[in-house]
Amino acid sequence: MQRLNRHDFPGPRYTDRVIQFGEGNFLRAFIDWQLDWLNEHQGTDAGVVVVRPRNREVKDSLNQQDGLYTTLIRGLNAAGEQVSETRLIRSLNREIQPYQQFDDFLALARAPEMRFVFSNTTEAGIAFAEQDQLTDAPASSFPGKLTQLLWARYQHFSGDAAKGWLIVPCELIDYNGDTLRALVLRYADHWQLPQAFAHWVQQHCAFYNTLVDRIVTGFPADSEAIATQLGYEDRFLVAGEVYYQFVIQGPAALAQELKLAVLAPEVKLVEDITPYKAQKVAILNGAHTAMVPVAFQSGLESVGEAMDDAQIAGFVEALLRDEVIPTLDLPPAELHAFAAAVQRRFRNPFIRHALLSIALNGMTKFRTRLLPQLLLAQQQQGSWPPRLTFAFAALLAFYRGQQGDKSWPLQDDAHWLQRYAELWPAVQSQQWPVEQLVSTVLSDANHWGEDLTRQPGLVAAVSQHLQNIIVHGMRTALTQLR
Residues 447-468: pLDDT tens digits? Predict the structure, then answer.
């Protein structure tokens, strides 16, 4: 079977306008996929040059397929119908490996049509490396490499205001654009570059804070059947879910030049990204964190199985609708639509997400994802929300590490693993009442940020749920929720 290439599969080519730091599955099924659609339907003419940010041996380069690859988008649409769609992506033009092609890398700065920078170099990628020098070929860090390019562009175009770049990091850190800009300016100072360059970066280059969301599973297991359907071999085939969200905080130039309005509501340009971050953390991540200990101790193994279980699905839906959404700041209709999309995503038959894989570091996840909603809900309603406190109790029960003849691995900070290894035997041998375990856990102010036992009634509410779980089992305890 013929491998995908531009000679045998001809089609449009687009002008190099985008530098993309990162060759991974996510960007190819997210940014490049969006740009490809905009190129075809909006005449955006945005061709992508990929820069591999790390120095490592590469067996397969995107250049081996002339930048072409296929996306396979499948899951449930807004109507709950199963869909599966392929798209041949032509927005990606070529790949550069800067450690072996440093001159080609720097040449990107001198390309007059180059306008956008996108990146996804992992959460650790936006960092400062003290040892980096301007003369390195290239600098080791992504911000260092970006500063080298910006300095080369500034010099080549004599500080022309019109030659600044629109820079859109997609790393999953808070205020990624602000952080990246601060690091570029730090490198400029570290390398003793002229103040006029720092001014050009601040005034004529836009750095956008973003929030990105799409599950990308990568190369599909059923690739042979897909290749037969497509009629070509594609070693860079990448599969992702139907849902995607791209929230961008910053000036309007990006939306105007890329014509992003046609991708609304999936793509949003907003003045403040904070409420969208809170929405994702509380609803998407929070639903996972609440679901995992409840569903797993009910005998289920995956997210999909949990959402096919009427009792567990009903618990998740009620928790989001009645206890989480009222604590958030976006319009209710928007929040309910997001929650509905989250539940569809959990039901995606093409993705098997093991509950135990989500259970990692559950204590920290509860603190960051659900504790704020738990406390806010109590302030709003005047009583402790039954499902959030039940999820809290289920989490504590999960750290028993066993139920009857079934045992499971626990993965968390050594502090919590040691604490639970002491606490649960004391409860199970009836040396301690359940309330003492709950009180000990909730009193850890170093973890929770406060001594939660000082919240009137919280220990009692969690203890009652936990006692029911221990005595009656998870399923029966769930039925007692009102």
Answer: 999 999 999 999 999 999 999 9
